[in-house]
Specification:
Order of helices and strands: HHHHHHHHEHHHHEHHHHHHH
Strand order of the largest sheet: 1-2
Number of domains: 2
Helix content: 55-70%
CATH class of the largest domain: Mainly Alpha
Strand content: under 5%
Distance between the termini: 50 Å
CATH superfamily of the largest domain: Hypothetical protein af1432
Number of strands: 2
CATH architecture of the largest domain: Orthogonal Bundle
Number of helices: 19
């Protein structure tokens, strides 16, 4: 390490010492499960620890697949509705604004925010429910997207070696739980690596266990509370765009407090969080804002997320999940090597992954990794008869 690198690293540390709140998580506090596996030790890297984690996440295969993963509306041919990749960018941007005002570590916030939804299945939360049901019926435990996000980053990326991210980033992703609304979030600052691993494993073993987990850092709390800030108003805009609701449908009592457009809702919620949390050891809302947000969330669930109009194709989608899941499990058990699960997935994984996981869990991993489009193509490839063309020779010419 030359003198310039040493100077840059020292300046990075000094900058955090000057700017960060005493309640923030400094980059030097980052803990890796395998520090010896880093090409450049964190202490000698000009990229601060959590900044480096963000680089690892955005260059991962799982992050690339965000581009065609459903946020809320799966079957609309409309380029102006939100996909998962846009949602995580919204979360990262809003959370960094809040974090900067509270003098927290923006690098840690960004890494958690960009990685928090990597484990989402095709077809969003509906797909998550379908895959969870299949996992439980197969006797392998549960499926939840937050734990699956950690699983991708810790156990599946790079052929099963994982990315060796820091404990604080993995914990923030595991504990994000954006579907749960809290008036106040207090970090579990005494959480150990062993406790994190127990929580992670319990998500697959104990029903609804993710609801019991809280982040170990204030930065993780910011991302968790920002998740709902980022989606609650944006989902309303998307619902209006596709004609599911009208802006005038929003209850006046909520509009008076939060506003009726995404930008006003974000601004109101973010400023309230900053005001209520500044200089505190927690992240939270004021009582009036929290009450209005709870009511808005209930409105969204009733008129958007559970609207029967957008659920009319769910039986078909669930059938696709069942067919693909059972087929992949069968192909693994029978060692059907031409199967897509071998060609596209298992041949890239190390032997340890295949030895330690049951066929049903490997099938769930493969399905969870898919984009919506790849998922649909897989069903067609496996269950739609392929045409022979004009004559048999056409088929022979197509084979490699």
């Amino acid at each position: 390490m030359d003198n310039l690198q040493k100077r840059i690293i020292a300046e990075n540390c000094r900058r955090e010492e000057i700017l960060l709140s005493p309640y923030a998580c400094a980059s030097r506090e980052g803990v890796r499960f395998a520090p010896e596996a880093e090409k450049i030790p964190d202490g000698e890297n000009i990229r601060p620890t959590f900044f480096h984690d963000t680089d690892k996440i955005i260059h991962s295969m799982a992050y690339t697949r965000y581009i065609d993963k459903t946020q809320v509306f799966a079957l609309f041919q409309n380029d102006h509705i939100t996909h998962r990749v846009l949602h995580v960018q919204f979360v990262a941007k809003i959370a960094r604004v809040i974090g900067r005002c509270l003098r927290l570590n923006e690098d840690l916030i960004e890494a958690i925010a960009l990685g928090h939804d990597l484990g989402h299945t095709p077809y969003g939360h509906d797909g998550e429910r379908f895959l969870n049901r299949l996992c439980t019926e197969a006797g392998i435990g549960y499926f939840c997207h937050n734990a699956q996000s950690v699983r991708f980053l810790m156990e599946i990326e790079q052929g099963g070696r994982g990315l060796n991210l820091t404990l604080q980033v993995l914990d923030g992703i595991l504990a994000h739980n954006g579907e749960i609304l809290n008036a106040r979030l207090i970090p579990d600052t005494k959480k150990t690596p062993e406790q994190f691993l127990t929580e992670y494993e319990s998500c697959f073993k104990i029903k609804d266990y993710p609801k019991q987990i809280y982040p170990m850092t204030l930065e993780g709390c910011v991302v968790r509370i920002t998740d709902i800030i980022a989606y609650i108003g944006r989902d309303i805009e998307d619902a209006i765009t596709v004609g599911l609701i009208k802006r005038s449908d929003l209850p006046p009592s909520i509009v008076r407090v939060l506003g009726d457009t995404n930008d006003r809702i974000i601004n109101t919620l973010a400023l309230d969080v900053i005001k209520q949390s500044y200089g505190q050891r927690y992240i939270g809302f004021s009582p009036d804002i929290y009450k209005a947000l709870r009511e808005l969330k209930a409105f969204n669930y009733a008129y958007i997320y559970h609207n029967p109009v957008v659920k009319s194709e769910n039986r078909k989608i669930e059938g696709l999940f069942q067919s693909l899941f059972f087929r992949y499990v069968q192909d693994i058990e029978e060692q059907n090597f031409p199967s897509p699960i071998y060609r596209y997935y298992l041949k890239k994984m190390d032997a340890r992954y295949q030895q330690q996981n049951k066929p049903a869990r490997m099938a769930a991993d493969f399905i969870a990794a898919m984009t919506d489009e790849f998922f649909n193509r897989q069903y067609k490839e496996l269950f739609f008869p392929r045409k022979f063309g004009l004559k048999i020779s056409d088929q022979r010419e197509e084979k490699p």
